[in-house]
């Protein structure tokens, strides 16, 4: 793009295209951590244009081959950090082994954003209103991180700390997300309440349940757009485990949500309304789950 | 069997025919010429430092570091521009007693809303200008803020303009008939307070301007994304002291306008001054956040209304109080009181009752200005009236169609004068109601609604009648002292090749002005539409006129083109008669050929007449001077406005657990008089309805207690999107105005006028089984769930 175009309003920055993870990490360290990794850029570029962020260096990680690809590794599906949102819709491995991500993908913004935005980028940003970070919680996924001290894997339960705050340390990079393979005795449901298709949801929820005949053996319920970070509804889960999905237990799970969620003050959606919507959504989703989803 | 011949069956009969816009292909192919894309040699870029405070004193401004930055050409403050630009005041004489503080491009010592431009930087590119903004330091001293409308009205409360007596900009009252009597003797009274949030235009292309002052020629050229180039030519001339003939405003393609781009904006005036100071072209394009905090907003009304009825459901009287907050200034040059004025004058307009009282209070506050935006005042007047009518229907056990049919002014009773003084030439409420009833399969929808309610599905059906103001005469602005023309001008020429050029003052903003003007000219002259080229939007080229606002393009501009084309045809036939040795009255023009009027036998192409007149005038009889260019001006006479009418209906579903509303189908029966291009009229209606649906459910500029706009982005300010929009079914009733030969009235705002009223009524119809109601627009899930006491 021509620099004279009026649309370019970010503060000046340097640009480096990394070919390997080590190059990317090195560049970040050499910039004194006044740098940002860029992949899909769907959140970072607007932030740069608004000058909410003004790093000295942008490190383009989109050409790092190791960050790409989707494949089975033992009991997990390894999803490369650069996997684009649209691939969640089109990749057969996702549909087969991580169908909850496949179900959530159509709700992620709009096609143009899905064509560019990446799974790793979404998880790294940890927007509390985003679908995918919350779904890593429901899936009990593990996030693989590369940093100066090597590689490590962090469970999603330990990854999301607070508003836009994660277990990622400065200069660290998500390389892949490991999702336990979907099993025959499992069911999933996903839905969200939004005023317009593609908007940030008023409330959203996805869940993965393991059934033993008609009883829930295990369930992980994850909400988004309900607080400072993607949130598991552990009290609601506890109210369901060991039981069938009848009206009584669904109502108990809905009631338990008050202990799980503490929606923040908001000028448009009061906390009590958000909690009400979460209960409505939970009730509807559990109903669908009971029907076999 | 062949259908009977209609006027559309003769050649070149383009009036009434759906034809594509000649400019649509160019725009679709990415060949639009938008000001945003324009780049002139030696052009510089402006950016503005904006106030973070809603109300504060400017203590000091330090710009040294910004001035020193490489690539920066100018840093200008309010004081710098005040030396070359005279102040403006947004008042009009016919709004008696209205006040507003004088305005300058940039403020001298006080900011009055958060987002107001304070300092301008001009640099080699926008990014450098933005860098410089970060180096400017402004010290502010907070002043008491007026955000809430009740705080603004408190005696002894904080003032937007210190030193004034109150925050009142304008107050007006209408009292017609015997209102107190009517209420005292009424069998039924319904009463409600309805609030309307602020919303804004959200044009796809933001405001864009390139000012290019040439000091050598003393000539100012402004490329301006506006719908009213002549108005701006006049304003730039007078406020910068440049003779009008040396100011040229060029308004080419524009990415949406909707009334938002005909107001004076501080940044736009500043950019003209910056170009004068630098002697170089200066460009400014608002970004999306800047648009949200500096484009005019609209609505923001709180209306308390009462309606009195007799035992049979006859409306006897209405009594309303409209409070509207307009920001810190009244907008220039059209003011910010027109919306309120139209609200109180349009309430009750479809109905027969004669007793009407209305009070309007227009109030200053520390927010960005509100002013005219598509369907000025209409959605508020319509929603208030139609909500009252529906409440009355419920109270009396009447069907919404029945109570309206009973109370509208009968179609055969025109002309009529409303209690507010509006004169209606001929409206068609009865015919429109009848047509809508069939169109929406009303009985079927009601039966379906009853059936679904048993299954816990809550559907609502809403209808709303409306009256729209179009084709305004000088009674709109001219009488108030504004140099805003209500006439239009056209220059029509036969080219040497036998084609026709039409230069006309009405402007194109995507609605198809150029298409319908070419249809009218081709139709009247008798040639193929593709042989008519229409040129708009350049004050150096096109004649002075009102341009595009208040639904005047087709009615006034169209009549101007019609008369001009007829005059050119007379001149062409005069020359043809001389050449053919015939009487002009024995000749006509069909498909570009002069023909015998009676037999339609071809005599000669008009291209041949052009060739002879332009190149072989020696062969014409001595003394003949062919006049193959004709200019014509037309100002509306007769009725001060051409009122139109119609009725909208909708069907929707309310999810009573989530408060989410799904629009199922929308209907409109509309009467805009003569329809020139049915396809364009329908698209105007659809576009207008969608904007009205956005207002009804989604759009609102929300402010914090400290006067900060909290949702100034397209992620947070919700505009209507295709997924949520229903199919829109359209039908027409045609009652042409007798004031013009063309008979066309306006249509651009009819969709917006009643869409939100329709949705409000439908939502309340859906909520009726719960005894719940909403009385606030936009109707958000929060409001619905609150009404249902769900949290």
Automatic annotation (TrEMBL), chain B:
Organism taxonomic ancestry: Bacteria, Pseudomonadati, Pseudomonadota, Alphaproteobacteria, Hyphomicrobiales
Ranges of residues in domain Aldehyde oxidase/xanthine dehydrogenase a/b hammerhead: 29-144
InterPro entries reported for this sequence: Ald_Oxase/Xan_DH_a/b (IPR000674), Ald_Oxase/Xan_DH_a/b_sf (IPR036856), Ald_Oxase/xanthine_DH-like (IPR016208), AldOxase/xan_DH_MoCoBD1 (IPR008274), AldOxase/xan_DH_MoCoBD2 (IPR046867), AldOxase/xan_DH_Mopterin-bd_sf (IPR037165)
Protein known as: Xanthine dehydrogenase family protein
Record-linked SUPFAM superfamilies: CO dehydrogenase molybdoprotein N-domain-like, Molybdenum cofactor-binding domain
Keyword field contains Oxidoreductase: yes
Keyword set, alphabetical order: Molybdenum, Oxidoreductase
Pfam families (alphabetical): Ald_Xan_dh_C, MoCoBD_1, MoCoBD_2
Source organism: Bradyrhizobium diversitatis
Keyword Oxidoreductase recorded: yes
